[in-house]
């Protein structure tokens, strides 16, 4: 079980690449390592590294290598996100893809050539670094592919499938054998018209990544101390397993945090403790990477309010109560040996029906009814409920449908779990 943090530089946020200060980075990494964490996730802002389609800045790549080396000196492994992409409500896309040079991020041949060259270059520069875990293609790049983005780069499911395969291949060419993956926000699991699908998330790349944020309607509907809010991260981990072809495919809880005001600062530690405790009860969990390391400085303008206070550490590198929670979890990592989850809730395989899994949907509600009743559910596709080999490989002995779990509407026969 790995415990880490998404690294947000305390000075300059991710704009620190413009004025890279290795001493400041080292001080940040010291404050992270002091918590007993074992890895960080690092974000290379795409326009700063590749301002022109055929120009990848050598100096920026050197600075990334320096950061990875500094982390290794402190016992921290590093995963690097390449196509940044989108962070904390801001889009960071190079000028050669926008306005007068508007080209689709997922389908334009020239853009794809540039992206692949960039990812390959970063991976190759880091390939021989012992602390380098691998590449994530980018942070929640699916938000560019559909609404609610105000200017989406629309693509079909097949086009996204080809894009993922090519970009992951570029990472593998640059750094063979490393842990290369892709990561999307939860619209992949919840939004019917998303071209990034659950099957792609669970089958492309070395691990499945999930990002859990309870401001998606979960905390609004159910409250901060509810079963759905405190188990939401675990739900996404178990939901992702339904689509995996490998019954033992690892899942990485790559982003999870305590967003104010839905999770008030005074309740953040309790929410963190509950979220971590429930997530580590999921078999096959690769690790938890909290969002984020350091608060965003109040000197920086125009961030949504919740973004300023998500750090485990303050902007001057002082640990908060949430840092203590994650540090304790990291110390106890060897004690987590979750039992197999034997009860599986049926979910629709059709991606056009995935809103059933979203907050307010029947799969979502049934999962948390089972959880509240003391069960430890996982999920299975409706196309696999009779596949005895698949069920046995996952240790599933009981399969239930949402209508067997949820109370029936008035005037209809009640649903009964069998």
TrEMBL record:
GO terms, molecular function: hydrolase activity
SUPFAM superfamilies: (Trans)glycosidases
Listed InterPro entries: GH
Superkingdom of the source species: Bacteria
Keyword vocabulary terms for this entry: Hydrolase
Name of the molecule in the record: Glycosyl hydrolase
């Amino acid at each position: 079980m790995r415990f880490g943090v998404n690294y947000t530089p305390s000075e300059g946020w991710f704009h620190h690449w413009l004025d890279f200060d290795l001493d400041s980075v080292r001080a940040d990494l010291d404050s992270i390592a002091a918590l007993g964490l074992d890895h960080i996730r690092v974000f290379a802002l795409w326009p700063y590294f590749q301002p022109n389609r055929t120009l990848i800045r050598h100096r920026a790549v050197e600075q990334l290598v320096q950061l990875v080396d500094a982390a290794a000196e402190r016992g921290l492994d590093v995963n690097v996100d390449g196509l940044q992409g989108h962070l904390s409500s801001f889009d960071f896309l190079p000028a050669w893809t926008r306005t007068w040079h508007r080209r689709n991020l997922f389908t334009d041949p020239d853009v794809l050539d540039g992206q692949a060259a960039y990812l390959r270059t970063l991976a190759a520069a880091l390939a021989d670094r012992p602390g380098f875990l691998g590449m994530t293609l980018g942070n929640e790049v699916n938000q560019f592919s559909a609404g609610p983005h105000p200017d989406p780069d629309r693509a079909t499911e097949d086009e996204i499938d080809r894009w993922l395969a090519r970009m992951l291949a570029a990472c593998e060419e640059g750094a063979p054998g490393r842990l290369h993956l892709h990561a999307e926000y939860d619209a992949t699991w919840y939004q019917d018209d998303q071209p990034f699908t659950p099957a792609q998330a669970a089958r492309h790349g070395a691990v499945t990544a999930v990002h859990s944020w309870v401001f998606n309607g979960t905390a609004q509907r159910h409250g901060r101390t509810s079963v759905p809010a405190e188990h939401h991260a675990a739900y996404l981990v178990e939901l992702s397993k339904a689509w995996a072809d490998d019954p033992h495919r690892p899942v990485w809880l790559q982003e999870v945090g305590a967003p104010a005001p839905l999770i008030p600062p005074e309740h953040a530690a309790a929410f963190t403790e509950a979220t971590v405790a429930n997530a580590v009860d999921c078999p096959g969990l690769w690790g938890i990477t909290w969002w984020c390391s350091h608060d965003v400085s109040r000197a920086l303008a125009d961030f949504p309010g919740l973004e300023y206070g998500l750090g485990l550490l303050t902007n001057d590198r002082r640990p908060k109560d949430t840092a203590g929670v994650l540090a304790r979890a990291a110390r106890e990592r060897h004690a987590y040996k979750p039992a197999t989850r034997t009860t599986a809730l049926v979910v629709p395989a059709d991606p056009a029906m995935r809103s059933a899994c979203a907050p307010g949907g029947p799969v979502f509600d049934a999962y948390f009814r089972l959880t509240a009743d003391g069960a430890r559910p996982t999920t299975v596709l409706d196309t696999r409920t009779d596949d005895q080999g698949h069920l046995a490989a996952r240790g599933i002995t009981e399969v239930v449908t949402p209508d067997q779990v949820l109370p029936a509407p008035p005037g209809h026969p009640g649903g009964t779990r069998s």
